Amino acid sequence: MSAIKLTFLGSLFILATGVGLVFVLATYILPDNLPEGQPQTQVDAPAEQVATASVQSANTGWSTQINVSRDGHFYVDAMVSSTPIRFLIDTGASMVALSQEDARRMHLRVDDASYTHSVMTAGGMRRAAKVDLANIRIDDNWFYNVEATIIDGNDDVSILGMSFLRQLENFQFSDRVLTLFW
Questions:
Q1: How many CA atoms lie within 13 A of 109 on its CB side?
Q2: Are the C-beta atoms of 95 and 163 separated by less than 8 Å?
């Protein structure tokens, strides 16, 4: 087997292992490590609307709860450098990934030579250009200098991946609600 095939298979193995680890953490370990008695605010919204609400907790600071949408995913509206962006939250994605449309709306211009990285997506291998986002704001919470990519051919939805989520205090999935702890 050639070295390129081995490298590709090794990368796929590492990616699958990482996705499995995130699933185990989010499903079994993280919920057990959260303080008891978290205030619960739940907002029901149609699938095309993002459901978010903020509550203050004495133990963990701010949190945002997001109900699962009708398509089974979690979406959140954010401001990225003064541009409103709707993100699909994906704990299996290693980075924030902007759709090409959202990158255009943010006036991020990347030429063909900027696509120097390869990333594995649900649709297969794609070229990606790395960018640094000055800030992302969800509710009243600001996060600065977030690593992101613009994925060639991604005109669907922007992804809020682990380059953002690892900056949170914690996140928890329970009873069809994803809670982000600031």
A1: 1
A2: yes
Contact indicator for 117, 149 with CB cutoff of 8 Å: yes
For tokens 């594995």, what's the residue?
Answer: 120
Tokens 């699938």, residue located? 47
Answer yes or no: pTM beyond 0.70: no
**Token output for 49:** 């609307």
10-residue stretch averages of pLDDT, the chain, 182 residues long: 48 49 40 40 38 38 89 97 96 95 93 92 91 95 96 91 96 93 90
Sequence-separated (6 or more) residues with CB below 8 Å from residue 54: 41, 62, 63, 64, 139, 140
Q: Please tell me the distance from the alpha carbon of residue 101 to that of residue 85, in angstroms, as a whole number.
A: 10
What one-letter code names the amino acid at 168? L
